[in-house]
Structures are given as C-alpha cells and as structure tokens.
C-alpha cells in the first residue's frame, strides 16, 4: 500500500509541472483562440536568459528581475510585430505564425546565449522527505507549492480585477468586447506578458530538474494531453489534467510497465488523451462547441 501511495503522490506532484506549461497555453487560447506553439520556446528563452545572467555574476534576485523585464518586453514586441498585423486572420494563420515564432525565438536564444547545456541550481535539493512511512521528493513538493501559489495569483488576477473581467469578455465574444470599448491589443499584451511569466516559472523548475538545454522546449508536447484532458479554455482544467497525466504515468509505469517491458511514460499520456477525445472531446472543463443550424 505504501508503494502505491508513494507512486500516486509522486505522480501528482510531478503533474503540477505539466500543469504549469499547460496554463501558458490556456491563457493565450482564452484571449485569442490561438494555440500558441511558441510557448515552449518562451519557456526555454526565459530559462536561458536567467541562467546566462546568473552565470555573469548577477545575484539571483537581480537576474530574476531582469529576466522578468526581458519577457515583458518580448511579449509587447510579439503583440506589436506578429499579432497585431494578423488581427481578423484565420486561426490556422495565427497558429502558423506562432509556429514560425517558436523557431525565431529558439534561433535568437542560440545566437545570443549558445547551445550548450547549462546547470541551474535553485537551491532546492532533490532529496527524499519522509512523511510517516511515505517517501516524497523535496523538489517535487516545493515545485507543487510554487505551482499552487502561481495558480492562486492567476485566479485573483482573472476573477477579482478589471483586467480579468475584460479577458473573460474577450474570451466569450471578441466582437461584443470590442463594441464595449475593450482594447483588444492591450489585452493581448497583458496575456502574452503573463504567459511569459508562467513560462519563466515553468522554465526555471524544468531547467533545475533536467538542465537548461534546447530539448526543454519539447516540454510543450507533454502539455498537449494535459490540455485535451482538462480542456483548452480552463486554468482549473489545466491543473486537473496535469495531475491526471502525472499520476497515470507513474502508476502505469509502476504496475503495467513490468508486464510489457517498460517504456510506458513517453506515450501513455497520449493514449489517455486519445480516450478522452472519444468520450469527451472538449475535455473535463473545456467549453463545448454549440452549432446552430
């Protein structure tokens, strides 16, 4: 029983890291209806910027503050140079724009900061903690706490502020929001900046876990099943989807893996997402499409 609980808890805690990546997608999708393929590149760029500044001898807090500034400026440039000229274009056009943007960001990161793998030490040791008879990873516990704090801040921002009300209005009906005087460009700037901050947090945690390297941008691929399961339009759904994926992966690897020779972790989340597409295409908390004929 202890092994089952340790495996389950470890999977749930690891799933919060998947949720962090998925939240960045949800924010932009809610505001513009666009699947932002550049989120992984933003995550990588944020982590590389921080570790490069820190390696130059800057204190942790100053390097973090400058990275935040870089991500905000980057978000404003993306909105002005990429999104604004493509207003009222089809979703596939905007998706292709973010796809191209991801390669531009990765190329810019490589040109400015190099392609070598960097170690990132956040001062969080990945050592086991014992809660009764259960063994829990200290890193996963801290990462889940940071994720919970970030989600709480986002919930307050989007549910208790005028910016949040404007964002929900844009997400519900863009034309109606524009008719009420809501500045769509300003909303996009804010959302991309917040998505950049989420990418920074996710990049630091993932970079500390597996090193800051260009394969870090591929973390976005694991966010896809999280979004399919939780729903593309719900921050809460991203959290729940991440927990489901993390727990299911751990349990499947522990109990099904030995029966078929292992190697379940890379594909099991996609198998789970495929099942959800059959039984609940909009995800657990996503908005169902309603067509009137």
What can you see in these coordinates?
- The chain contains twelve helices and two strands, in the order H-H-H-H-E-E-H-H-H-H-H-H-H-H.
- It is mainly alpha-helical.
- It has one domain: ABC transporter involved in vitamin B12 uptake, BtuC (Orthogonal Bundle).
- The protein has a two-stranded antiparallel ribbon with strand order 1-2.
- Helix 1 (2-32) packs across helix 6 (162-172), helix 2 (39-55) packs antiparallel against helix 3 (60-83) and helix 9 packs across helix 10.
- Its main location: membrane.
- GO terms for molecular function: transmembrane transporter activity.
- It is found in: Cell inner membrane.
Name of the top-level CATH class:
Mainly Alpha
| Continuous helix count | 12
**Helical residue percent?**
over 70%
Distance between the termini: 54 Å
Please tell me the CATH architecture by its name.
Orthogonal Bundle
Biggest sheet descriptor: 2 strands, antiparallel
Q: What's the average pLDDT? A: 83
Q: Which structural class is indicated by helix and strand composition?
A: mainly alpha
Count of DSSP E strands?
2
User: Spatial order of the strands in the main sheet?
Assistant: 1-2
Oligomer: single chain
Number of domains: 1
What overall form do the CA principal axes indicate?
globular
Low-confidence stretches: none
Order of helices and strands: HHHHEEHHHHHHHH
How much β-strand is present in the residues? under 5%
CATH names the topology as: ABC transporter involved in vitamin B12 uptake, BtuC
């Amino acid at each position: 029983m202890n092994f089952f609980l340790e495996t389950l808890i470890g999977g749930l805690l690891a799933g919060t890291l998947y949720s962090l990546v998925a939240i960045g997608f949800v924010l932009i999708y809610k505001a513009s209806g666009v699947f932002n393929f550049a989120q992984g590149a933003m995550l990588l760029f944020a982590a590389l910027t921080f570790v490069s500044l820190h390696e130059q001898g800057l204190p942790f807090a100053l390097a973090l503050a400058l990275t935040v500034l870089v991500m905000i400026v980057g978000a404003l440039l993306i909105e002005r140079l990429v999104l604004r000229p493509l207003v009222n274009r089809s979703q596939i056009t905007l998706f292709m724009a973010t796809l191209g943007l991801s390669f531009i960001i990765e190329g810019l990161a490589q040109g400015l900061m190099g392609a070598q793998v960097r170690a990132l030490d956040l001062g969080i040791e990945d050592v086991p903690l014992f809660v009764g008879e259960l063994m829990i990873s200290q890193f996963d516990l801290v990462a889940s706490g940071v994720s919970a704090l970030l989600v709480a801040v986002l919930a307050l921002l989007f549910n208790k502020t005028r910016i949040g009300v404007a964002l929900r209005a844009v997400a519900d009906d863009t034309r109606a929001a524009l008719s009420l005087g809501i500045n769509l460009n300003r909303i996009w700037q804010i959302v991309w900046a917040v998505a950049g901050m989420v990418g920074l947090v996710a990049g630091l945690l993932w970079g500390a876990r597996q090193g800051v390297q260009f394969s870090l941008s591929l973390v976005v691929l694991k966010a896809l099943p999280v979004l399919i399961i939780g729903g593309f339009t719900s921050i809460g759904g991203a959290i729940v989807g991440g927990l489901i994926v993390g727990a299911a992966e751990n349990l499947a690897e522990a109990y099904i893996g030995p029966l078929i020779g292992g190697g379940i972790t890379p594909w099991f989340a996609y198998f789970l997402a495929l099942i959800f597409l059959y039984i609940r295409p909009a995800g657990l908390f996503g908005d169902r499409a309603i067509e009137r004929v």
